[in-house]
Write a structure and sequence with these properties.
27% strand, fumarase, globular, five-stranded mixed β-barrel
């Protein structure tokens, strides 16, 4: 796991490791499960969630196109998930001031990656497995193993942002 507190807004890096996809409906279920003290489909503590709903996997491929979705759609859930151990998020676009404050408070990091380049980003995914909420189809939670996945720090653990 990378040390989030050493990263700086604007820094570009190539991440290798585990990330989990989750979008709106999966976020709703994660929050509900935490509130009910139900088991989660993955260990949230120190995890990175990628706001992504991959397209159908073509024959012979690991995953379909897997570009980022608009992060602001998850803003209502983000402070709560950071409180319960989430360390990083990957998406596109700016975040609310409330999310920025929660990132600073919980020493998380918000990353962005190339929008409109889902087919290119799929080449960095070395394995993909559904680990939760399979009934959500493309919004199911997938565990992705990635190698050299391109990221930029958009909001660092000190709350500094490339968005000003």
């Amino acid at each position: 796991m990378m040390k989030m507190d050493t990263l700086k807004a604007g820094q570009v890096l190539f991440f290798s490791g585990t990330i989990y996809t989750a979008r709106d409906q999966a976020h709703t279920r994660l929050v509900r499960a935490i509130k009910k003290r139900s088991p989660l489909p993955f260990i949230l503590k120190n995890s990175i969630i990628y706001y992504c709903g991959p397209t159908q996997t073509p024959k012979g491929k690991i995953i379909g196109a897997c570009g980022p979705t608009t992060s602001s759609r998850m803003d209502e859930f983000t402070p709560f998930l950071l409180k319960y151990g989430l360390k990083g998020m990957i998406g596109k676009g700016n975040r609310t001031e409330e999310v920025r404050k929660a990132i600073r408070k919980h020493k998380g990091t918000y990353f962005i990656t190339y929008a409109g380049c889902g087919a290119l980003l799929s080449k960095y995914v070395k394995s993909a497995k559904i680990v939760g909420y399979g009934d959500l189809g493309p919004e199911a939670i997938l565990k992705l193993e990635v190698k050299n996945f391109p990221l930029m720090v958009a909001i660092d653990a000190n709350g500094r942002s490339i968005y000003g």
